[in-house]
Write a structure and sequence with these properties.
mainly alpha; 3-stranded mixed beta sheet; Rhopdopsin 7-helix transmembrane proteins; 3 strands; 10 helices; 73% helix; globular
Length: 308
């Protein structure tokens, strides 16, 4: 099953996928196809709703459009190939395809990390410093934060690809995964991966852990400040912050689990990756629409305009 390769020249990797059971593959094909279509359409609907609704002009919704765009793009990096591979017994990805999948995935993942941080800062200023909100969260600052997110994502992805280029592969080339994942590829390398693994753990896992704790502390501060708000203000703040913190947990916990152990593979890695790369982008638009009255009203209005 292995492809012949020279010590420093990999032509392709063989992916074992989620399962080897043909009947289960057909069922998962339908399930993940529906999930993928729903994810893309739901995120595009949020982008359209915010872009076309004059009532959703707050900075929070500006960041939400970028988050939805990232989620729709992120799930499109791996899910279509995973779905298509379920129709075949032999699943491969070329070296160039592997590098592309790695780069785009880490680019979008790094950008989403900064966008979520910007959204948390927006909620902190809105709740803890409401009198200064309009002067602090200016349009120029919001645009700058988004530019930082995209540039930061490119830099993070470039570092990951440079790590990948330092690896040598001399066989085997079979990975028990459904996508080209850096952790699984590290375990296929025939070079010493321990030191590189520690660098990756610091670069990806360590940063995820640090940012997650920073966001956790910021929400503790926000919750503490709610004591001075009236009941209606607390309810609205808890609704928006609850939605955002749920998204933060769904994003960062799998990220921390995956990248803090790059020199060892665990059976749960594939399930965590499915949740992180496929289910989380689907859940994000649901969380933001179910708990946000303004988005629901604007979405109903947009749908009525489209239907009529």
């Amino acid at each position: 099953m292995n492809v012949l390769m020279s010590p420093n020249n990999v032509t392709e990797f063989v992916l074992l996928g989620l399962t080897q059971n043909p009947h289960l593959q057909k069922m998962l094909f339908v399930v993940f196809l529906l999930i993928f279509l729903f994810t893309v359409l739901a995120n595009l609907l949020i982008i359209m709703t915010i872009s076309l609704s004059p009532t959703l002009s707050a900075p929070m919704y500006f960041f939400l459009t970028h988050l939805s765009f990232i989620d729709a793009s992120f799930t499109s990096v791996t899910t279509p190939k995973m779905i298509a591979d379920m129709l075949y017994q032999r699943r491969t990805i070329s070296w160039d395809g592997c590098l592309t999948q790695l780069f785009v995935g880490h680019f979008l993942g790094g950008s989403e990390t900064i966008v979520l941080t910007a959204m948390a800062y927006d909620r902190y200023v809105a709740i803890c410093k409401p009198l200064h909100y309009t002067t602090v969260m200016r349009q120029g600052l919001c645009q700058l934060l988004v530019v930082v997110a995209w540039v930061g994502g490119i830099l993070h992805a470039t570092v990951q690809i440079l790590f990948m280029m330092d690896l040598t592969f001399c066989g085997p080339n079979v990975t028990d995964h459904f996508m080209c994942d850096f952790v699984s590829l590290l375990n296929l390398a025939c070079s010493d991966i321990y030191r590189l693994g520690m660098v990756v753990a610091t670069n990806s896992g360590g940063m995820c852990l640090l940012i997650f704790f920073m966001l956790l502390i910021s929400y503790i501060v926000i919750l503490s400040s709610l004591k001075s708000h009236d009941s209606e203000g607390r309810r609205k703040a808890l609704s928006t912050c609850g939605s955002h913190f749920t998204v933060v947990v769904l994003f960062f916990v799998p990220c921390i689990f995956t990248h803090l152990h790059p020199v060892a593979a665990y059976p749960a890695d594939k399930l965590v990756t499915v949740f992180f790369a496929i289910l989380t982008p689907m859940l994000n638009p649901v969380i933001y629409t179910v708990r946000n009255t303004e988005v629901k009203i604007a979405m109903r209005s947009l749908l009525k305009r489209i239907v009529t």
